[in-house]
Structure formats: structure tokens, C-alpha cells
Amino acid sequence: MAGKFINHNFTNTVDVINDTMVNRVKNANYMFNNLSPVITESWYNINDRSTTLDNTLRVEYSDIGMNSGIRYNKIKNAVFYSSSILFDTSNLEFDESGLSISKISITGIILPNTWIPYTGDYMNIKHAGKDWLFKITSTSFDTIDTGNNVYSFTAVMSNYGTSQLDKQVDYKYKMIVNNVGTGFKTIIKEDDYITIEYLDGVYDKLLNYYSVLFFNPSIAGVCFNGKYGNLYDPYMTEFLIRNKIFSNGNEYKSIMHQTNLPAMFQIYYDKSIFRSLERCNIDSIYNMECVATLIEQDYSLFAALLDDYFEITYIDTKKYTLPVFQMIDPQLIYNIKNNVIIDATNDNKRLYNIIVTYMNDNKLADDFDRIMSDLEYVPESYLFYAIPMVLYIINESVKKLIE
After folding, report:
1. Which residues of the chain are modeled with pLDDT < 70?
2. Are residues 155 and 207 both part of a single domain?
3. Does 276 lie in the same domain as 320?
4. Could you tell me if 328 and 371 lie in one domain?
5. Mapping DSSP to helix (H, G, I), strand (E, B) and coil, where does residue 304 land?
6. Which run of H or of E encompasses 391?
7. What is the CA radius of gyration of the chain?
8. In a domain, 2, yes or no
């Protein structure tokens, strides 16, 4: 499954990395010619901060075992590049240190801005249906034009297992392959990965429900049937476009403005609750009154529709002889301004708690999972506005973990 934040299609992802490496690491592409990506089961990377060396000789006591002073960070699914990992495993022989004397070795290159390999690292790879452990015996690096270092290594097969190595692990990490070459971390703590994976699933589910309730393919946008008819909000549309709410790994819906925007639209947007959310600023929030005006634009997609659609206008409402109302639920505004949390578990508007907590504490609600469970998804205006706000908050919360 390809989510918004984590791509679980490893084979497809590493192939894409191979195809686009020239653009992502610029002038490093020559180093990857004729190399193939290899996904390890785990890479045991020496933790130089907690590893204990002999104070006199500055060498480790031993690398594996109860008396070893070496500590590791375990990186699951670490990816490197190699010309080949095909090797003959028949008639293997090992020396007293556990390394292969059959000259079974692997050379590889590690992608920039991922992790730094050390001599003494171990990696566990699957080959011919079995796990094989290799010890890194030498490393080197080249500095490319971007200033980043590309590390090369040589590894020799070891007859040790991973059980003792796992006892020497300080921290566990996972590699997010599709973050390679972006501004996001590629190696993150396993607990953070689990959190991101969970939020990825929530985002996908919530976006899917929102699409079912409010996305109208006839206008390539979102709208809902409210008190005053079929309502279209260009400010909501702007929020969705700016923050790429509908862009995720499973599908992409193109959201576009479908009405002519006034010259002052961007200035008006800066006064909206959407901009306040983007700034995480409660001081600028107030509940703007609006009117709904009939969309009569011959060259818009609305012109081809049989039903009437009305555009939400927040600014200069007094010049219209139309009913004035509030699109954003006043309860949400009040709760944000006063940091009010809804306690009732059967209140569907408990979704507001996520927005309130984020706006006041700049974090994801501690009871996020409980809030999201058993929500009733109905085509009501409060969900029309609240769900995209929650999707934005999920996105920002994930960014904090991977930036």
C-alpha cells in the first residue's frame, strides 16, 4: 500500500529511486550506474556515543558478546546499492573470528543523507530464502558537488547470528525509502514510524470518507447541500489546494478553483480561520459572517449543471440583500478561543478537540485515537469544515516527526 507518508511498496519504490537518482542526488548518479538497490533485513550501525573502547588502546574489547563494549542502532529495511549480492553458500568456512575465509564479500554504496556506516557494523540480508549476516570491514566516502558524502563499504560474511547483536542494540530505527532526496528524514525511530504508519491509515480513511461525502467530480471540487442549497466555498477550496489535502499515495484528486476570484481574494483568505490554522494563531480567529450568492458564470463547470449552486462570500456581506449566516460552527470558534474540550464520547463534534488542542498547544491530541473511533460520518457542514482541518493537523504532526 502506498500511503501519504509511508510507501509500503518497497520494490516499486526502490526502482523509482533508481530511475530518479540523478535528480535527487544530482551529480552522484555516476556512482550508482549499473548498481541495484538492496533491501536489508536490518543494519546494525555502531552507536559511537554509547560504545565503550579500551581507554589505552582505543580499540573495542570484542564486537559481539556479553563482554563487548560496542552498542548498535538497528536500522530495519535499510537500503544500499550493490553490483550483485549473488554468492555461493556451499562449503562455507570461517576463521576463529567468525568471518568467512571463502572470500564471500559484498561491496555497496549508501545513499547520501541516510546513515554513516562504520567498520564493525553488521548487516543482515535475505538470500536464497535464508538470512545471512555480513560484517563491514572497510568504509570510505566521496563528497559530491552538493557537499553531501556518499559512503562505500566492503562487508564479509560472518557466521554469527543476530540474537546477541539484538542484545547490544540501544535504539531501533526504520528507513522510509520514499524520503530519499527530499527534505525529510529517511531514518526515523521505530516508535515514530509506528505512529506515522497509524496516522497514514487514519489520513487515508478520513480523506476517503470526506471524498464520499463532499467531493463532486462534476466540478472537480467539494461542496455540500446546506440550508441555502448547494454551497461552494472558494476559501475551503484554497485551503485544500495550498495544503495538498487531496494528495496522498493511494489516489490523487485534482482540486481547482471553479469560480472567478476577486482581486483581493488572497488578502481575504489571510483573515479566514484556515489561515489562522496554518499559522496556529488563535488571536486572529473570529467567526466571519457570510452570504451565499448564486453562481452565474457561463465559462465555469457550474454552468453545465442542472442544479443551482451558491458561492460562499465572507467579505462585504452588507452590500447583499441576502440572508447572512455563519458557515463555521460558532461552537468550534468558541472552543478554540477558550481551549474548551468536549468530554462526551457520544458527541460527534468531539472531532473539534483535535483542532482545539492543536491550536492551543501546537500538538496532536493525546486521546486522538479515542476521538477518531466510532465517529458518525454525515454530510453536515461542521464535518465539511472540520475534517480538512484535522487532515491538515495530521499532516503537520507527521512533518514534525520526519523533518
Report:
1. 1-2, 8-33, 53-63, 66, 84-103, 249-252, 316-318
2. no
3. yes
4. yes
5. helix
6. helix 381-402
7. 27
8. no
Residues 229 and 347 in one domain: yes
Angle at 9 between CA 45 and CA 390, to 5 degrees: 95
**Residue-wise pLDDT tens digits, 160-201:** 889 989 999 999 999 998 888 788 899 999 999 999 999 999
pLDDT, tens digit (0-9, with 9 covering 90-100), for 17-64: 555 544 444 444 455 657 788 999 999 999 988 887 654 444 444 667
The DSSP letter of residue 259 is: S
Query: Which stretches within 87-176 are classed as H helix?
Result: 163-167
* Domain boundaries, position 51: 10-184
The answer to whether residue 201 sits within a structural domain is: yes
Grid coordinates 549480492 are at which residue?
Answer: 85
Distance of alpha carbon 236 from the chain centroid: 23
Q: Which residue has the cell 549476516?
A: 133
Q: Is the dihedral of CA 300, 303, 305, 307 positive or negative?
A: positive
200 and 180 within one domain: no
Q: Report yes or no on 336 lying in a domain.
A: yes
CA distances from 256 to 235, 268, 303 (A): 12, 18, 16
- Choose one of 150, 184, 218: the last residue of a domain: 184
Residues 158 and 132 in one domain: yes
The DSSP code sequence of 2-63 is B-SS-B--HHHHHHHHHHHHHHHSGGGGGGGTT-EEEE-SEEEEE-TTT----TTT-S-S-S
Q: Does residue 151 lie in a domain region?
A: yes
- β-pair partners for 174: 76, 188
Query: Residue with C-alpha cell 519504490?
Result: 13
**Number of domains into which the chain is organized:** 2
The three-state secondary structure class of 148 is: coil
**SS3 of residue 313 by DSSP:** strand
DSSP state string for 168-230: TEEEEEEE-GGGTTSSS-SEEEHHHHHHHHHHHHHHHHHHHHHHHHHEETTTTEE-EEETTEE
> Quick one: pLDDT at residue 10?
52
